[in-house]
Automatic annotation (TrEMBL):
Protein name: Isoprenyl transferase
EC number in record: 2.5.1.-
Gene Ontology, cellular component aspect: cytosol
NCBIfam families per record: PRK14830.1, uppS
GO MF term list: ditrans,polycis-undecaprenyl-diphosphate synthase [(2E,6E)-farnesyl-diphosphate specific] activity; magnesium ion binding; manganese ion binding
GO biological process: polyprenol biosynthetic process
UniProt keyword annotation of Ribosomal protein present: no
Family: Belongs to the UPP synthase family.
UniProt: substrate binding residues: 36-40, 48, 52, 80-82, 84, 86, 207, 213-215
Amino acid sequence: MWRFFPQKNKYVQEEAEFTFDSNRAIPKHIAIIMDGNGRWAQNRRLPRVAGHKEGMETVKTITKHASRLGVKVLTLYAFSTENWKRPEEEVSFLMQLPVDFFDKFVPELIKENVKVNVMGYTEFLPAHTQDAVTRAIEQTKDNTGMVLNFALNYGSRAEIVTAVKDIYAELKKKDASEEEITETLISDHLMTGFLPIELRDPELLIRTSGEERISNFLLWQIAYSELFFTDALWPDFNGELLEMAIAAFQNRDRRFGGLKK
Ligand code: IPE
Ligand code: IPE
Ligand code: MG
């Protein structure tokens, strides 16, 4: 695990040190559980929402950095189906964030050739949030570079339930047999199904803030993802640490159930 020392502004790997090599494989799809905004703010005696605001700046930095490294898809967990449990004040701040974020950042996204997508139960978001999302998708739809995929009101169990219901309805309509249910069919019906099949599953999953859990994120898609946990709180995460996560990835032996290469 990478430990972050805010006073020294330094990341230290506990077991081994890897150096990032831009000539080695860069994960095509990186997913990030952006956690620790509240703690970042509380550490500074600020209200939790100040952490979310600062976290938005990290999203900009990491988007540009990942895009320049040649990442094809960056999936960011921004709001879970369980985050509605938080105080109303915090939830409404989080619902305003995409509006501010896209308003200011879309011109840069266009410059960077980044295409925005949002996956999740967006129909339950407030109207102004939905509008901001729809606008950003529309404004970046012709971009051909990295896909910046926000998981907004996303939960993987709900996603799987929806997929199973859709598959059931389709098969019933066609009077098809259960033999048609395959891994590809399931993958097609998940919220990552809009991506080409080889890009749907993240190769690298990063979680900040020291928590080592998945919190209902991409349960199907991370079957063989490399996991990287860091103590850094999301507002402290930066390009250097992203490269360290990739360096760790580059030094993993991905066997997929087979034997060492
Ligand atoms: C992550 O930061 C952002 C969201 C879940 C929206 P948190 O708000 O969970 O921050 P901590 O975990 O309380 O520090
Ligand atoms: C996961 O973080 C959700 C997002 C980052 C959007 P949480 O802070 O909600 O997760 P738990 O509650 O610590 O598992
Ligand atoms: Mg959290």
